[in-house]
Amino acid sequence: MADYMPSPVEWVRNQVELYERSGGTEGTTLRDTGLPVIIVTNTGNKTGAIRKTPLMRVVDGDNYILVGSQGGAPKHPVWVFNLRANPNVEIRDETNVHTMRVREVSDDGERARLWEIAVAAFPPYAEYQTRTERKIPLFVAEPA
Ligand code: F42
After folding, report:
1. What is the pTM of this model?
2. Domains of the chain by residue range
3. Given a cut of 80, is residue 1 above it in pLDDT?
């Protein structure tokens, strides 16, 4: 069984810790924004370790949209490479845990529709995209 390797970023690590320790009843929003956050459990593509990545909660029917924004940084967050290598994830959405499979969005039409939903859920995504040349990757997580 692979080991869990926490994020090196303290506030992220602490959010995951509180979210999971409380069984999804605390630490479920982005700081004081009140906006809901999910925890995506994924597999390190180099270490094989268990990684837990909080992301904004963006839903499309039964699916979640995972946005590799990282605040508009010039480089992709590395969890993107984990998902590309292993699409099997668990998504904790408050007290519910779903076994899901992700696929990266490549079709422009689908991307436009999903991006609109993502920005509606978390408006800063639009501003992040203006900060970087890289195309912020989108994944759709569907029930496995
Ligand atoms: N990030 C987003 O991109 N989008 C969001 O909507 C979002 C919301 C959010 C809400 C709450 C919160 O607490 C954090 C939130 N974040 C959001 C931040 C997100 O949780 C991540 O911290 C951020 O996206 C950066 O992801 P990252 O995977 O690049 O994390 C880095 C800091 C990290 O953990 N690096 C590790 C390290 O040791 O440097 C390695 C992690 C890893 O997965 N390693 C792989 C392995 O094999 O284990 C290898 C990866 C590779 O290929 O290099």
Report:
1. 0.98
2. 10-143
3. no
